[in-house]
């Protein structure tokens, strides 16, 4: 976390420049940001980079940033964005975790409460992959690339 302060709602911050690049998913959580952050810490090892609480709605967050596996995930309870059901904006896709130890990530996510949509197993294209649904309705894929297969790609 970069320069910021701490208060009773958690860290307040300036976004971490190292995570402010590339494409960053920004999800509306229907007033459940805090709950989602706690779940993602258990399920995916998320680190709380910082949060900006809503001054007029205690326990809700205008903005929250998490780091998962070296990448950023942003969440909001903001009503304009939350008017769409959580997960609806990415209902035709999923969040993909590319990790070298997929079985460990898979087991942790299941233990935290994710449900299996497609089992984690070797796929026809050569990688290990599976799909989970979290308690907020979002889909998460766990992918472990087959290094031998990808090392040969030209």
How does the helix and strand content classify structurally? alpha+beta
Alpha plus pi helix count:
4
| Topology order in helix (H) and strand (E) letters | EEEHEEEHEHEEEH
Count of individual beta strands: 10
How would you sum up this structure, described in words?
The protein has 154 residues and is of the alpha+beta class. 21% of the residues lie in helices and 36% in strands. It has helices spanning 33-44, 79-82, 102-112, 147-151; strands at residues 4-7, 10-13, 26-28, 47-53, 61-68, 71-76, 95-98, 115-122, 128-133, 139-144. The strands form three sheets. A four-stranded mixed beta sheet has the order 3-6-5-4, with helices on one face. A hairpin with a 5-residue loop joins strand 9 (128-133) and strand 10. The radius of gyration is 17 Å and the shape is globular. The mean pLDDT is 82.
State the main characteristics.
alpha+beta; 4-stranded mixed beta sheet; 21% helix
In brief, what are we looking at here?
With 154 residues, this protein is an alpha+beta fold. The chain has helices at 33-44, 79-82, 102-112, 147-151, and strands at 4-7, 10-13, 26-28, 47-53, 61-68, 71-76, 95-98, 115-122, 128-133, 139-144.
């Amino acid at each position: 976390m970069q320069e910021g302060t701490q208060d009773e709602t958690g860290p307040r911050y300036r976004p971490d420049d190292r995570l402010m690049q590339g494409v960053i998913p920004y999800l509306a959580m229907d007033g459940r940001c805090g709950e989602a952050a706690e779940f993602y810490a258990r399920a995916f090892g998320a680190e709380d980079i910082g949060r900006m609480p809503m001054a007029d709605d205690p326990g809700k967050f205008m903005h929250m940033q998490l780091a998962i596996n070296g990448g950023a995930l942003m969440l909001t309870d903001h009503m304009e964005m939350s008017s769409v059901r959580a997960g609806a904006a990415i209902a035709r896709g999923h969040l993909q975790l590319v990790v070298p130890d997929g079985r460990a990530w898979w087991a942790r996510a299941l233990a935290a409460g994710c449900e299996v949509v497609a089992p984690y197993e070797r796929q026809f294209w050569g990688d290990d992959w599976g799909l989970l649904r979290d308690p907020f309705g979002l889909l998460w894929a766990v992918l472990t690339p087959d290094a031998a297969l990808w090392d040969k790609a030209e």
